[in-house]
Structures are given as C-alpha cells and as structure tokens.
Design goal:
The structure holds 2 protein chains of 2 kinds. By secondary structure, chain A is α/β, with parallel strands linked by helices. Helices cover 27% and strands 28% of the residues of chain A. In chain B, helix 13 links the parallel strand 15 (384-390) and strand 16. The two termini of chain B are 42 Å apart. The chains are: A alpha/beta, B alpha/beta. The complex binds zinc ion. Zinc ion binds next to loops of chain B.
Chain lengths: 261, 450
C-alpha cells in the first residue's frame, strides 16, 4: 500500500476537494469512516484528495467543491444545522443541478427533502430532491443489505450497512439507491432504500457505508473526476479490494445463515 | 418477608447453583428467575442494608469505580453486596441481592450495597432502591443501537434521576452532559473534576459540545478527552459546577499519582498502581463518596495499592514458566474507552503485541460504526510489533486498520489469537476486547495462569 508515487504520472495531477459539512454537529455515526475511505482510495490511486471540514461558523463556498458529505446527527443537532443550511440553500441547489456530487446520510438525507415532520413540529428541508420524511415508531434499527440495481456503472455486488432511524422517508417516483433484501429501508414498507438524484446519493446506511461498499465510494469519485477533468476512474491504477469484498460478503452471508444476524 | 419474595430468593439460588454446575458466571440468570416470581424483589432486600446504598451510573468507568468502592469498604471491615462482575441491568441487580440473602427468612446481612446500574435500567432499579448516593461517571457515546442515540440515553437517565427520592449526586463535573443532568434535578450535588490541563488532546469526537440548556456551542478552556474539560456556555451562563474534589499535580506514569484538593483541608496525596487518565476519575469518584458519607479515607492509598482490577478492567495476567509473559486485558467498547486504552498502552514504551476482539452481539451493540471514530492511526507506533484481530466483526476491524494503512492478521477466535502471540510474541501482550468477548478472553487467560 505504501507505494512510492515519486514517478507516478498521475501524482498530484488530479485533485478532488471533499467538503465535510458540519462535522462538529453531524458526526453521530462514524462519518469519519466515509471521509477516510474517499481520502485513501484517492491516495492509493495517486489522486490528491483535499478534505475541508466546514464547521457551523465557517463560510461555505461550493465553487471549488467536488464532493460534499452531509452526515447525521441527533434531532436537536439536525435542527441547528437545518437553520444554518437554509441560508445557503440556493448555493446547494446550484451545486446539485450543476452535477456536483453529494453524499447525504441519515439526518443529512432527511434534510435533502422538503420537510421532516416530528412530534415536536416540522423541520424545513432544503428541497434539493423531491422527497419528504415523517417521524415513525419504532426506530428502524438493523443490519441491512440492498440489491444494487440502480447504480449505473458500478460493480454488481450488494450494498451493505447498518440503519438506525426514526424517520420514514417517501421518495415518490425518484430512483432508490437499492432494493431492500434484508432490513427496513426508507420507510419499512416499499422495499426501497435511499435515493439517487443527479449526482446525489441519499441513504440511511450510516457511518462506514463506503469502506464495505467500495463500489459506491468509487462511483462518487468517478463522477467527481469526470465532472472536473473528463477522465474515468478506470484510467487510474486498479485497487485490491479483496478485503473490502470479503467484509461485504460477510454481512450478506449472515442473512443466509440459519442464525439470525 | 413475604412468601413470594422468599420463593423468589430460593429460585435465584437454585438458578445460581445451576449456572455454577454448567460453568457459567451466573450474574444475570438468577435475577431473571427471581424477578419472574417477584417483580419487586429488590425493595424488601434493599431495606435490610444497614449503612448505605451507592449506585453508579454512566457509560464508562462504572465497573472499575464500583469495584474500587467495594474494595475500599471491604478493606475497612464492612460487609458489601454488589454486582461486581458488571451485570448491570435490572436482572443483575436482583441477582446480586437475591443470591446474597441468607437463612430461612432471606435476610440480607450487609452494611453497604454498591451497585453499578445501566442507564436503560436505572429508572426501573431506582423504583425499588433508595440510594443514599448516586455516582455519575460521565456520558459517552455508547452502544448506539440499543438506545437510539445519546439523547435517548440522557432521557432515560434523566427520568430516573428526576423521579428518584432525595439522594446525593456525586458527579464528574468535567462532563457537561452529566453536569446538566445533575443541575436539572433537585438533588444535592457533589462534584469532582480535574481543573488543570493534563494530556494533549488526542481524539476529535466531541459529542455534547453544545450546551444542553440552550443549544449554543460551549466554550472550552481545554479538553481532557472526548467532551470532558473545563467549559462554560457564553450564551446562557450554564457552566462547569464548582469542584468539591479537585485533582491536581497528575502524573500518569510509571503509575498514577495526584493530589486531591478539598476546600478547607490540606491536599491529600493519592497514588495507585493503575494506568490511564480515566482512572483518575474513577478514583476521585470513590474518594468523594467516602468523604461525603463520612467514611474514613486515611488508608485510601494503602488500600488502592492492593486493588487488583477485575474482570478485564486493566487486569494483568502473568503467564509462562516464570510468569515472564505479561498479558493485559482491557475492555474497550466505545470511542472514548478505546482512545483512552490506546493512550495508556502507548505510555508503555516497551515492545508489545496487540490483539483486538470486536463482537456485535446484542450486549455489545449491533452497530460497529463507532470503530471509525477511534483514533486507530495512533497504532502505527514502533513499539507495537504485531496486531491480530478477531471476533464476529474481525473483518470490520481489519478494514478499519487498512484505511489507516496498518497491516493486521486475522485469527478465528480469541484463544487462537492469544496462543499464537504467546508462542512467538514479545512477552508483552495487550488484549483489547469489547463486551461479550471479555468473558471468553478472561476465562481463557485465567485458565492459562493456573
Ligand atoms: Zn447555554
């Protein structure tokens, strides 16, 4: 893994700017894992990944952003973020409509939509994607496996993760991230999980979503690279993903075993 | 005593015997059997306690604090009932009481009850128990999927505390979440803390950085670890309580030592054969309780010296022909605990091997996303000669290490992992395990030591 990149023609020629939104508030479920995954998968390919942590009081500029991560927090923290984000709603819309990559998880996913209704009232969303969320009971907590049929250019293996959410999200006619094979998904009813809209991925699969789903990570990187440089990820050195795949398969196979996962 | 309670006591004892015969620890099952017969078995037995009942809550440090308190009291000749193996749900508390009851009338012959209680069980346990003191060690992110989120843990504990009859809350005032909880209640508050900067900040997860009272960001003079530190809220005036028992002059190696300042008295020197900054808090909590209950503390350091950490809380085993192989077993079940364990381990500058075991059974929490919030990059240290991962989530752990470019081996189970390192390691082995891996690792190491 510690290759000498000194003679690598790609080294530092390509740079991706990853913006991590409000890690001081939205970092409940190990979102650092997603950042770390993107960072290392860039590094191993000789792509320079710059991660900018944007905290609540920082000025946010999306002009140079290539990938934006909006993570999950508790309801109270989400409310604080929600108020803050309303001020840059138009900037975010322009970024998404221009094909910018955005990964939104848990609370961040709910914020993509029009609103999130809770017992304490309505939280206005960003209306970046046509979806809405209502609080439900009980919380949906489970390991989860998705059949990966929506990702256009990804490898055909499953998406695995862990979900823990009270909200029930309705994505209407949007494309889901995947079909639920095991677990609950968006609302526990329609067998859909997450949403895909332009280069936005919204999902309840939190924390280390990307390390065990390197195909999803690479999709984000691929789209960002293409938007910025017009190049494809396949132009870069291939990575050895055997450990990632083994970890992915291990979650899937738990559901095939007679012992409950 | 009511016949129903007597019957429940008998059932608990029968269950305990059955557990022992089948080689299990019997820390919860007898309680389950007793509660089935008498759901309020705790109340009449607790009424027999002569001197005091002390409950310990908080996400980290419960077991060590509670065991330390038991050792202190027992060393001074008191009889103590406790759940010191760490079975801290309502069943564990019921088991501790029921299996300790004596004679045909089920009398509980004890001066003190020292109980660690899980946050989710606190409301239920406090219905039947009237503690004199409750220690709150701090609230860290813990087993998220069992409670939903830390906010729910807070709510469960808050309910228990608000509804409990008058007691003294002995709190870790360096934790703003704990301080907020305590201040909201009408209970008398006694606080302990560390008002000087001791360690460089190592981790970046700061749950509870925002004022629980008004939502504004808290202002910190400095952090100790996680959200612990010296803080105040510039917006609403919420602040760290006045510290009643303040540790200063802290030294972390070769063993812990510090002074405790208490207003109106000269500082008291305390030293302990323990490692890790978090143990300063555990010791402070016990010291504060003893002082507040007017119990003697003149032999405090002396008793500490003979304290043997139990059941995987910094427990040391000496294996091999001359006991030359040192193995340290430690529970590490959330980011705060893991980061503190890594700090303590790296203070030992001799070569070492490391085994990490991660399970995701119900008691561990099914969700292992917290692994990504631990600063594992610090394991790239030249004193760490090898890392072996095992457990149900060994692959997750190995992947976590891969993403900080640290190589590791995988072993099918903890016994195999230990065997391998005893064979070819550097005679200094650290075993870090989460909850359900602890019993297995402990039992195996104990067997090897004999
Ligand atoms: Zn405030």
């Amino acid at each position: 893994m510690n290759n000498n990149r000194g003679n690598d023609p790609y080294y530092n020629r390509y740079r991706l700017n990853i913006v991590h939104l409000y890690p001081d508030l939205l970092n409940l479920y190990g979102d650092r894992g997603n950042i770390q995954c993107m960072r290392m998968r860039c590094k191993w390919r000789g792509i320079d990944a710059q991660v900018t942590e944007c905290n609540l009081d920082d000025h946010l500029s999306l002009a140079s952003a290539d990938i934006v991560l909006l993570g999950g927090g508790s309801d109270r923290e989400q409310q604080i973020v929600c108020t803050r984000l309303q001020k840059i709603r138009q900037d975010l819309r322009d970024y998404v409509e221009d094909g910018g990559s955005l990964l939104a998880i848990c609370g961040g996913y709910q914020l993509l939509g029009h609103y999130y209704d809770t017992a304490d009232g309505r939280m206005e969303g960003l209306s970046l994607v046509d979806l809405y969320t209502e609080q439900g009971s009980p919380r949906l907590i489970s390991n989860i496996v998705l059949k990966n049929e929506s990702l256009p250019d990804a490898l055909p293996y499953e998406i695995v993760g862990f979900e823990n959410h009270g909200g029930r999200t309705n994505i209407g006619s949007n494309t889901p991230l995947g079909r639920v094979l095991y677990g609950h998904g968006n609302n526990g009813k329609d067998a859909c999980e997450g949403v895909l809209y332009r280069n936005v991925i919204g999902t309840y699969l939190h924390g280390p979503l990307l390390p065990k789903n390197p195909h999803v990570c690479d999709l984000l990187l691929q789209r960002a690279l293409y938007r910025k440089y017009g190049v494809s990820l396949t132009d870069f050195p291939a990575l050895d993903d055997s450990l990632e795949r083994e970890a992915n398969r291990a979650v899937v196979s738990r559901f095939h075993s007679p012992l409950a996962p | 005593m009511r016949p129903r309670t007597l019957l429940a006591v008998a059932a608990a004892k029968a269950a305990l015997t059955a557990c022992h015969l089948s080689g299990r620890p019997g820390s919860s099952l007898p309680g389950r059997a007793a509660l089935k017969i008498d759901p309020h078995i705790i109340a009449p037995l607790a009424a027999d306690i002569r001197r005091g009942i002390i409950v310990t809550c908080g996400t980290n440090g419960k077991t060590t604090t509670n065991n330390l308190l038991c050792s202190m009291l027992e060393a001074q000749g008191y009889r103590v009932v406790s759940n010191r193996l760490g079975a801290n749900m309502v069943e564990g508390v019921a088991a501790a009481f029921a299996t300790a009851a004596k004679g045909p009338l089920g009398y509980l012959d004890a001066d003190f009850a020292c109980l660690e209680v899980d946050e989710a069980s606190a409301a239920r346990v406090l219905q039947d128990l009237y503690p004199d003191c409750m220690i709150l060690t701090g609230l860290f992110r813990d087993q998220l999927d069992r409670y939903g989120e830390i906010d729910l843990t807070m709510k469960a504990l808050e309910k228990a505390i608000l509804e409990a009859p008058d007691m003294t809350l002995v709190i870790n005032a360096d934790d703003p979440l704990t301080a907020y909880l305590a201040k909201k209640s009408a209970h008398r508050i006694v606080s302990y803390g560390v008002s000087e900067k001791v360690t460089e900040n190592v981790d970046v997860i700061r749950e509870g950085r925002f004022c629980e009272n008004c939502g504004a960001p808290l202002r910190y003079d400095f952090y100790h670890f996680s959200q612990l530190g010296v803080y105040c809220c510039p917006a609403c005036g919420f602040e760290r309580p006045q510290i009643d028992y303040d540790a200063s002059g802290i030294r972390l190696s070769p063993q812990l030592s510090f002074d405790v300042k208490e207003s109106g008295t000269a500082p008291v020197k305390i030293s302990a054969p323990l490692n890790g900054f978090y143990n300063v808090y555990n010791i402070l909590a016990v010291y504060s309780v003893l002082r507040e209950m007017n119990l003697p503390t003149d032999r405090f350091s002396e008793i500490l010296r003979s304290f043997r950490p139990q059941f995987g809380r910094g427990e040391v085993f000496h294996l091999g022909t001359n006991g030359g192989q040192r193995v340290l077993l430690n529970l590490a079940k959330n980011p705060a605990g893991f980061n503190q364990n890594i700090s303590a381990m790296l203070q030992d500058r001799s070569p070492k091997d490391l085994i990490i075991v991660i399970n995701d059974n119900a008691q561990d929490g099914r969700d292992v996303s917290w692994l990504w919030d631990v600063d594992f990059d610090r394991l790239a240290d030249e004193t760490i000669r090898s890392i072996t991962v095992s457990g149900l989530r060994a692959l997750d752990m190995q992947l976590r290490l891969k993403y900080v470019e640290i190589d590791s081996e995988r072993a099918p189970d903890v016994e195999k992992a230990i065997d391998e390192r005893l064979k070819d390691g550097c005679e200094n082995l650290y075993v870090l395990v989460n909850y359900t891996a602890l019993y297995e690792a402990h039992k195996y190491l104990e067997g090897l030591e004999k």
